[in-house]
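Quick question, first post here. What does this chain look like in 3D?
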Amino acid sequence: MRKYLSNKKIGLYLIGAILLISFIFLAWISHVWLETEIASQLFAAIAGAIIAAIMTMLLLNKQSESEELKDRNMAVFNQKQDVYHHFLEELHKILQDGEITIGSKDKNGEIDTSVDELKDLIFQLSFLQLHTSEDTIKEVLDKLVDIIQALNDYNSSSEEYRQKNAPEFYSRFSNSLFCITAILRKDLYNEESKPIDENQMKSILQECDLYIERSNLDRVELQLYFWNELRKQLAVKGYDIKDSDKDFTQDINEYYARARNRYRWYGFDFMLSGITFRVEIDNHYYFGIKRPSENFQDEKICKTFEKMVGFIKTPWWYGWRHSASYDLDFWNLNSEGFKQLNNSRMRATYIGHIAEEIDAFAKNFLREYNKAANNNEINS
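> Answer (accepted):
Ran it through. Tokens below.
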């Protein structure tokens, strides 16, 4: 569009120059050869037409400049609007988990650069700076500093403090965010926008009786969550859990009560074609196929476990094993998985992975067991 308008402007200037030269040429001819009244009238008419054409050209040129400016302003406005909306969306993603994550060292001492939210935020500010003034950027930065400081203060405080002061934190957080929105709105629409009053927001939040979920559970709560959530997720997959409503609190308290002669080997069962599949705990949780009594033999089940890798045979178990990928040592509490279990946003997903692993082993067992049963029928 801009190139078209530029070419159009050049064309108008060219036409104007031609008309001006024509006017001068006609004036010279009329002076030299045409001295009659008719010739004078003819010249006057032609001269008037040329002057009108020149005026029209000037007006069109002014109009084209106005259209070009209007189109440019509209393009700039649309671009700024997209950039501002995208900035707020990205800010929401970065702050969603309550902290700004930057590259950190993993257990091997290597820098994990897959997530660097601080770098993402800096890039978003650079996009913002491309489309706004220095004063606007400074105002936005001041409010971002307030948000980050509020997050740091909140995350470094105790569980009790966070629960007590949740309305104050969220009102402070929301006020800074609303101020950023007001700053961008003013720059975009040239309209003053007053953010929601911080005290009013605090009053509203206090009436909501906010509850802040604890990020870290103690060892009893962790294990209780493990048993309850695992049973729930296996039930969703269609397994009929025996004593599905059992409360494990007493078992867990006794489990941690003493180091010698410990209370253990509790868990839950579900049936696979009349066969007992059990999840149980010693130091670690484990799972497999339990015998109905000590040293009880079922040839089809024994043949099935000959084809299954990683299972251990004992007098009470046809085969049991620890998790291949999600092992948890509930006695020493030093397994990597406890990082996920202590994260309120990740713990259900982590238990979901365990449920999927158990589900896969159960289905694999049934598949191999049915093959063994069919082979026995054929041989007989």
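The chain has three domains: 2-90, 132-207, 219-379.
Residues 132-207 form one domain.
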